[in-house]
Amino acid sequence: MRFTKIPTDTFEKLQLNAGMLLTSFNPAEPTIANEAILGATTGGLTFNAAATYRDNGEDIDNCPKNMLELKVLESWEVTLSGTLLTVDTASAKKLMAAADIGSPDTTKVTPRNDLLAADFGDIWLVGDYSDKNGNTKGGFFAIHILHALSTGGFQLRTQDKEKGQLAFVFTGHYSMAAQDTVPFEVYIQAGTNE
Amino acid sequence: MDKAQAIHAFWSSFEWPALDEQSAYDEGVLEELGIGDRYITYEVSISNFGDQVSLTASLWCRSTSWEDISKKADEIADYIGLGGRLIRTDDGAIWIKLGTPFAQRMAVQEDSFLRRIYLNTSAEFLTAT
């Protein structure tokens, strides 16, 4: 049929697999340090960047809705959600957002009632991209969430004969120091032959 | 190469000769073809964009030990990897993924020295047709 086709380069532009949740990543040198992996996840990850718009023409008589010249972008709501299967004190602290790892008892994670600037930290979702995805020159699709904070609370769901699951939601935040910087950015790098 | 040729090339990339299991031969013919005591037979299923199909294969090895054939199964599992492996075709790619379970040892009643490991993979077709 004439209008039932896909682009011939479709397979070169697909994001593949669930991706990884990282606390640091350098797109210029895309190697992954084991300690940068926040944990093993299940069910994939969901990134959502929702823009909030205001229609400045909505209270103007005779002005149709959604007049492009009067549309204003107010802000972005940036979230990354999923479910972790693994947890240690560092990731538990990250999920609690406002919390501290004990000292000298480093097995204890204590939540706080006050939020500190240090509780915010960048999070990366990095997944395979393109048809060339070898171990050294593979393509990647990376989303950088700036000043992420766990806003979904600390949750643990256990089940008989199943692995425990920790659902999470991270929210990206604007910073007073860079108020025009939207708290996410995307890198899409096609792979090359190994 | 077309999809069937790409599947053949994939299974042939592990050093052991690979044969389409629908044209698997008896012992005499294998000897005539120079196929030794170690080979792979594989299934060919062809589909279209977005379809995911099961692709099975078998490793065969005449030996008193499971060591070599198990190493070959591990090598194939490592090559496919947890994220799968894309193999190119004329009009796109086939995404080979590990099945569950990936490898099963099978008894061969007719020949107690012939070892067989049955491999499960799935293939998602990312081809233009």
Q: Residue ranges of chain A: pLDDT <50 for 5 or more in a row?
A: none
* Overall outline of chain A: globular
Taking all residues together, what is the mean pLDDT of chain A?
95
User: What oligomeric state do these chains adopt?
Assistant: heterodimer
H/E topology pattern of chain A: EEEHEEEEEE
| Secondary-structure content class of chain A | mainly beta
In DSSP terms (H or I, runs of 4 or more residues), the helix count of chain B works out at: 3
The string of secondary-structure elements of chain B, in order, is: HEHEEHEEE
Structural class by secondary-structure content of chain B: alpha+beta
Beta-strand residue fraction of chain A: 35-45%
Features:
heterodimer; A: 194 residues; mainly beta; seven-stranded antiparallel beta sheet; two-stranded antiparallel sheet; 1 helix; 9 strands; B: 129 residues; alpha+beta; STM4215-like; six-stranded mixed beta sheet; globular
